[in-house]
Write a sequence for this structure.
């Protein structure tokens, strides 16, 4: 039975946010990836278009989630379903770090508005 201990998470940082990867191919997961996201107060991540479905569950704090141009405030306990091909932007307008749990399928890529393509290591 594969168990990934909290101390075994691998931390990545990009665009002012921290991603702590737990389930990924490097830990034995063949189909799904899961990570904890930490979005510091005042962070505004750039909009990006994802090629796979993502499920974002807010553990703590509040965020503004823009999905295909529609913005919603989400609070701890809320879950956002992000469809493949959707454009997503995340902002933390509060004075506290927000914490998320995100799951997607292995192989996720994202494209920024300027055409830059990202292959995040926490989802591959």
């Amino acid at each position: 039975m594969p168990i990934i201990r909290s101390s075994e998470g691998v931390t990545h940082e990009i665009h002012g946010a921290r991603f702590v990867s737990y389930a990924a191919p490097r830990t034995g997961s063949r189909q799904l990836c899961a990570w904890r996201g930490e979005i510091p107060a005042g962070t505004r991540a750039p909009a990006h278009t994802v090629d796979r479905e993502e499920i974002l569950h807010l553990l703590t704090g509040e965020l503004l989630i823009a999905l295909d141009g529609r913005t919603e405030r989400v609070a701890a306990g809320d879950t956002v379903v992000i469809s493949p091909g959707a454009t997503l932007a995340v902002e933390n307008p509060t004075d506290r770090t927000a914490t998320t749990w995100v799951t997607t399928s292995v192989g996720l890529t994202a494209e920024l508005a300027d055409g830059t393509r990202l292959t995040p290591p926490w989802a591959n």
